[in-house]
Design a protein that fits this description.
Order of helices and strands: HHHHHEEHHEEEEE
Shape: elongated
Strand order of the largest sheet: 2-1-3-4
Helix content: 40-55%
Largest sheet: 4 strands, antiparallel
Number of strands: 7
Length: about 230
C-alpha cells in the first residue's frame, strides 16, 4: 500500500484521474440529470411531507442511483440509467396498488390518529405516533391555534400534517401562545377550574396528579377567541 502524503494537492484534486475526466463529469451530469428530470416529470411532484414510507425509501435509492455515476469513472451510464428507471417504475407500481386496494394503503401509509379531543391532548394518540405534548402544541400553533380550548378535534394524518377542527364557540383551556415553556404559570384559586399543563384537561383546584396524563403542573385556564 502506497504511503499517503497529507495535503497532497494532486491527490486531493484529481488523484490518478486525467484532467480530461473533468469534461466527462460534465457530460455525465447533463445526461443523468436530464434523464432523472424526465422521469420525475412523469411521476409527478410530491412534497416530502406527503410521501409514504415506501416512497421516502425510493427517494433515498434514487439519490444513490443518481449520485454515484456522476463522478465514479468505473460506473457506466446505461446501468445507472436503468436503475433510475426501475426505481421510478417501482414507485408507479406502488401508487397503482395503493389506489386500488385500501387495505394496502393502510398498511403502507398508516391511518390518521386522533391527537386532541375537546381541548385535551390524548395520551393514546401521543403513544401511537411517538409524539410528545409539546410537539402537538407546536403543530397546533403552526395552524394558528392559540389555546387548546379552541380545538374540537385534531388528527395527525399519515402524511405527518395535523388537521384541526375548531370549537365554536371556543372554551377556556390551556393557552399555548406564548408556548407553555416560555409563559409564566398562573395558579387557580381554590375551588376554581385549573388546567393541566401537559395535556390541557380541566380539574378543580387544588389538583394533584392529572388523571389523564399523570402530570402534576397546573395553571389557570384562559379563554382565547379568533376575534
Amino acid at each position: 500500500m502506497d504511503q499517503i502524503v497529507p495535503f497532497d494537492l494532486g491527490r486531493l484534486l484529481l488523484a490518478d484521474l486525467p484532467p480530461l475526466f473533468l469534461a466527462e463529469v460534465g457530460l455525465r451530469v447533463a445526461i443523468i440529470l436530464a434523464w432523472t428530470m424526465l422521469l420525475l416529470r412523469w411521476v409527478g411532484g410530491r412534497s416530502i411531507a406527503q410521501m409514504s414510507v415506501v416512497e421516502f425509501l425510493l427517494v433515498i435509492a434514487l439519490g444513490s442511483a443518481v449520485g454515484d455515476p456522476l463522478f465514479q469513472p468505473e460506473i457506466p451510464l446505461l446501468p445507472a440509467m436503468l436503475v433510475i428507471l426501475l426505481v421510478v417504475l417501482f414507485d408507479k407500481a406502488v401508487d397503482r396498488v395503493l389506489s386500488r386496494w385500501r387495505k394496502a394503503k393502510r398498511i403502507v401509509d398508516g391511518i390518521p390518529v386522533e391527537m386532541v379531543r375537546d381541548g385535551v391532548i390524548l395520551g393514546d394518540g401521543l403513544s401511537a405516533r411517538d409524539h410528545g405534548p409539546t410537539e402537538v402544541m407546536e403543530k397546533l400553533r403552526l395552524e394558528g391555534i392559540r389555546n387548546l380550548g379552541q380545538v374540537e378535534r385534531a388528527y395527525l394524518e399519515p402524511s405527518g400534517q395535523l388537521s384541526v377542527f375548531r370549537r365554536k364557540p371556543a372554551q377556556p383551556g390551556l393557552r399555548i401562545v406564548p408556548p407553555v415553556e416560555l409563559s409564566q404559570l398562573e395558579p387557580s384559586a381554590v375551588g376554581s377550574p385549573t388546567c393541566c399543563v401537559d395535556c390541557g384537561s380541566i380539574a378543580t383546584a387544588p389538583a394533584g396528579t392529572c388523571a389523564l396524563c399523570g402530570g402534576s403542573t397546573w395553571t389557570r385556564p384562559r379563554l382565547d377567541t379568533d376575534e
